[in-house]
Specification:
Shape of chain A: globular
CATH topology of chain B: Serine Threonine Protein Phosphatase 5, Tetratricopeptide repeat
Strand content of chain B: under 5%
Largest sheet of chain A: 6 strands, mixed
Number of domains of chain A: 2
CATH superfamily of the largest domain in chain A: Dihydroxyacetone kinase, domain 1
Structural class of chain B: mainly alpha
Mean pLDDT of chain A: 96
Shape of chain B: globular
Largest interface: A-B, 37 and 33 residues
Strand order of the largest sheet of chain A: 1-2-5-3-6-7
CATH topology of the largest domain in chain A: Rossmann fold
Radius of gyration of chain A: 19 Å
Number of domains of chain B: 1
CATH class of the largest domain in chain A: Alpha Beta
Bound molecules: adenosine-5'-triphosphate, magnesium ion
Largest sheet of chain B: none
Helix content of chain B: 55-70%
Number of strands of chain B: 0
Low-confidence stretches of chain B: none
CATH architecture of chain B: Alpha Horseshoe
Number of helices of chain A: 8
Oligomer: heterodimer
Number of helices of chain B: 9
Distance between the termini of chain B: 5 Å
């Protein structure tokens, strides 16, 4: 294993210390239990947005805390869900009296830990709603599985719902909006290489030099199919087609196209994928009116990419364009 | 003889040791069909328990077990954190007021633990989870209680049943947890959570062999 770390067990702690030093104008960092809140939390009368998950997906979620996005993020150990005590403290810290929304990616661990935290927060008199993101079309037949995973759409949801909360919408409105985003977005990812979890020290799965894995999640879990490497255009088709067909996205739809790096894939390759995806969507009469390109929900140093499509309307577009000031996403200010 | 407070402490220490020794083994099982962290998760949790244990030692059986459950809840995360926490919290609740445990008490505790895990995780037997080790162990315990077997013998039978349940997860296709994302590819692998559950019962059987 070759990594720029000190000790594997200190990775998350030292990352948090770096974030604290880098962005004192945007966030406050708390330790034991670990959580990050926006510098001006709690914002009085505003719905608080709390998310969280395993570390290793940076900039998600800590990098999305700040004006116009999340109020708090709870980082777990690398690729492991955080614990209820972190979520409870974060919930209390951002409760401005208008209630708190938990944005939870659909993984068994995250869901169970957030459920326990929501129960504890309610016992303390805080109004809590939870929304589960499950946009990964690679997971089929959800009655036979733990359900679809929450992947790329999480980033878009946190931005859009964050803007709505900033506008002063109510807890119910914000939660309904989050569910609407979840209903209108889909994703699929692939890997060229595996990744190495620091405390494990070896690749999460073995992927030969000339093969790729289609339908991976964001935790180094193996995907659904492994095959010989193909050119970028072919890979883009393999990712985009199931995404388009699943919702389905139709001629006349306006969409946000999000091409995400899993961590190791450079921007130059993301643009190649973006180009092909736009061509394919245009051929189907689907109009790309907004986009996001870059590493926003990563899987450590894994090489690979994911494509997320979100169907837009005037409200979602306006919320997407609204100002945001976080470590990982910043515009309109 | 019965299981005393000191025996309970010895069991927790023994399990923490087994988890440490099998950290890599459990993580490797999880690498096959999960996200390569089950050993690390359990080890982080039981390291925290071992740090906490000196402050729990003076309590009675239920308070020790509750302390273990709370520590796991705030240190493990993942799926196994809430599930193992539930196991210890349920044991604690069932043993309320008990100074020592007979096999029937342990059986009742394990039944509550099993039900708690099923409620939290919504898994039923056959879905390739820790429930597949818990359930046969419970059946074996009930039978042992009905036959009035000595504690050590009953525990041995339950650990053996958990072992069989663990092996029986190998051909199963996972329907809960991360492994379910793999669909058919999850078959031919042993479930990590069922394996750690077997270790839990095996360390009970070994520690309490002469109780
Ligand atoms: N719904 C469930 N019910 C019972 N047991 C479950 C359930 N989901 C998972 N498990 C058990 O948990 C084990 C995996 O635990 P582990 O510590 O690896 O957590 P994880 O699923 O990786 O959590 P995270 O996803 O947050 O990392 C599985 O082997 C299985 O036995
Ligand atoms: Mg795991």
């Amino acid at each position: 294993m070759k990594k720029l770390i000190n000790k594997p067990e200190d990775v998350v702690l030292e990352e948090l210390q770096g974030i604290e030093l880098a962005h004192p104008d945007i966030v406050k960092v708390f330790y034991d239990p670990n959580y990050i809140v926006r510098a001006d939390a709690p914002v009085k009368g505003k719905v608080g947005l709390v998310s969280g998950g395993g570390s290793g997906h940076e900039p998600m979620h800590g990098g999305f805390v700040g004006m116009g996005m999340l109020d708090a993020a709870c980082p777990g150990a690398v690729f492991t869900s955080p614990t209820p005590d972190q979520m409870l403290e974060a919930t209390k810290a951002v409760n401005g009296g208008a209630g708190v929304l938990h944005i939870v990616k659909n993984y068994t661990g995250d869901v169970m830990n957030f459920e326990m935290a929501a129960d504890l927060a309610k016992e303390e008199g805080i109004e809590v709603e939870s929304v589960v993101v499950d946009d990964d079309v690679a997971v089929k037949d959800s009655t036979w599985t733990a359900g679809r995973r929450g992947v790329g759409l999480t980033v878009l949801m946190e931005k859009i719902v964050g803007a709505a909360a900033e506008e002063g919408r109510s807890l119910k409105e914000v939660a309904d909006l989050a569910r609407k985003v979840n209903a209108q977005g889909r994703s699929m990812g692939m890997a060229l290489t595996s990744c190495v979890v620091p405390h494990v020290g070896k690749p999460s799965f073995d992927l030969p030099e000339d093969e790729m894995e289609i339908g991976i999640g964001i935790h180094g879990e193996p995907g659904r199919v492994r095959m010989k490497l193909e050119p970028a255009d072919k890979v883009t088709e393999m990712l985009l087609t199931p995404v388009v067909e699943d919702l389905p996205f139709k001629a006349g739809d306006e969409v946000l196209l999000f091409v995400n790096s899993m961590g190791g894939t450079p921007l130059i390759e993301l643009y190649i994928i973006y180009r092909k995806a736009v061509q394919m969507l245009e051929a189907k009469g689907i109009k790309v009116t907004r986009h996001l390109i870059g590493p926003y929900i990563t899987s450590l140093e894994m090489a690979g990419a994911s494509i997320t499509l979100l169907k837009l309307d005037a409200d979602l577009t306006k919320l997407w364009d609204a100002p945001v000031k976080t470590a990982g996403m910043r515009w309109g200010i | 003889m019965a299981i005393s407070r000191d025996d309970v402490l010895a069991w927790i220490r023994a399990f923490a040791q087994i988890i440490e020794e099998n950290n890599e083994y459990l993580t490797n099982l999880d690498r096959e069909i999960g996200d390569a962290d089950h050993g690390a998760n359990m080890n982080r949790g039981f390291k925290a328990v071992m740090t906490k244990l000196p402050t729990l030692e003076t309590g009675d059986i239920p308070s020790i077990l509750k302390g273990v459950g709370m520590t796991l809840l705030s240190s493990v995360g993942g799926a196994s954190g809430p599930l193992y926490s539930t196991v210890f919290m349920q044991l604690s609740k069932t043993f309320a007021g008990k100074e020592q445990l007979e096999l029937a008490d342990w059986c009742a505790g394990w039944e509550a633990a099993e039900q708690g895990v099923q409620m939290r995780g919504k898994a039923v037997p056959g879905e390739k989870t820790m429930v597949d080790a818990m359930q046969p162990a419970l059946d074996a315990l009930k039978e042992a209680v009905a036959q009035n077997l000595p504690i050590g013998e009953g525990l041995r039978k339950s650990a053996d049943a958990a072992h069989e349940g663990m092996l029986a997860t190998i051909p199963l296709v996972a329907r809960k947890g991360r492994a379910s994302y793999l669909g058919e590819r999850s078959a031919n692998h042993q479930d990590p959570g069922a394996t750690s559950t077997y270790f839990l019962l095996d360390s009970a059987a070994k520690t309490w062999a002469n109780c």
